[in-house]
Amino acid sequence: MELSEVQARVEELYGEVDRERGIPSTVAWLCEELGELAQAVRKGTKEQQLHELGDVLAWLASLANQIDLSLEDAFERYVDDPP
């Protein structure tokens, strides 16, 4: 699945609700999911890690949608001129 497809799917599933929730709450949820991913990496199973990685990606896609940016465009610098 392409990153643009990820964003489109998240928009389809959660776009309206996510916009109602707003950007500050979305950032808070993303941070919470990052914490859960960190814990899963330290102490969890591969299945738990995969689950949390998916959650982080979904919340990141939601944030990108709300601020009208493309994850593919954001990652382009790693293709053209990696830091």
Give a description of the structure.
The protein is globular and about 35 Å long. It has 83 residues and is mainly alpha-helical. Helix content is 86%, strand content 0%. Helix 1 (3-21) crosses helix 3 (46-66) and helix 2 (23-43) packs antiparallel against helix 3 (46-66). The longest helix has 21 residues, at 23-43.
How is the topology of this model organized?
Blueprint: H1 3-21, H2 23-43, H3 46-66, H4 71-80
Helix pairs in contact: 1-3, 2-3
Number of strands: 0
The average pLDDT is: 97
CATH topology-level name: Helix Hairpins
Using the 3D structure, state the CATH architecture.
Orthogonal Bundle
Content-based structural category: mainly alpha
Q: Give start-end ranges of low-pLDDT stretches.
A: none
Tally of helical runs: 4
The CATH homologous superfamily: MazG-like
Calculate the terminal CA-CA distance, rounded to whole Å.
25 Å
Order of helices and strands: HHHH
Query: How many discrete structural domains?
Result: 1
Task: From the structure above, extract its key features.
globular, Helix Hairpins, mainly alpha
Brief sketch in words of this structure:
The protein has 83 residues and is mainly alpha-helical.
